[in-house]
Amino acid sequence: MKIYIKNMVCGRCKMVVKSVFESMGINPFSVELGEVELKSDINENQKSELLKKLRAIGFDLIDNKKSKTIDKIKTLIIDLVQNKNNDLKSNLSSYISQELHQDYNTLSNLFSEVENTTIEKYFINQKIEKVKELIIYDELSLSQIAYSLNYSTVSHLSNQFKKVTGFSPTYFKNIKTIKRKQIEDL
């Protein structure tokens, strides 16, 4: 049995979700971003308790096909930006289409309909949040950040950053009061 979970975006999320299952005496076969595979089915009481525990820590169960697809798209994008250093071998539309084995136009229309934004804008917002994180850490130069996130130039990164945030990266670096957004709030 597979259970789909919303808002799983990192390795720590996988550990936390796994511990919730284990605390209920349910040992998952595998735990991946957005998806937990169980060795056997769970009953409605267990599902209800699981939902309560997951919601208490910021997760949710996904029941319908549209929501599962949207969550898979978000998970792919977040994983791409956060963990794979945006190392795309093809364009974003091809990547998503190949990973989900569906037509990109269908996925794009569904995403826009449900999320009121495009996949591309969601991707850009994720990249800009990663840029903010790297700027705040102050370990990489803007050139290194641009390179690591697959921007063609520092100028391209700066223009996109300003368009999304209203600030230049340099101005953002100099003011420490602006907080980053949580991934699920994008």
Structure report:
- This protein is an alpha+beta fold and 186 residues long.
- It has 3 domains: 2-62, Alpha-Beta Plaits (2-Layer Sandwich); 65-120; 122-185, Orthogonal Bundle (Arc Repressor Mutant, subunit A), CATH 1.10.10.60.
- Helix content is 59%, strand content 9%.
- The longest helix has 19 residues, at 65-83.
- The chain starts with a strand and ends in a 12-residue tail after the last helix.
- Residues 71-175 form the HTH araC/xylS-type domain.
Largest sheet: spatial strand order: 2-3-1-4
Strand content: 5-15%
Order of helices and strands: EHEEHEHHHHHHH
The coarse silhouette is globular
Low-confidence regions:
none
The figure for the number of domains is 3
**CATH superfamily placement of the largest domain:** Homeodomain-like
Q: Which topology of the largest domain does CATH recognise?
A: Arc Repressor Mutant, subunit A
The CATH class of the largest domain, by name, is Mainly Alpha
Mean pLDDT: 88
Cα Rg: 18 Å
- Number of E-type strands: 4
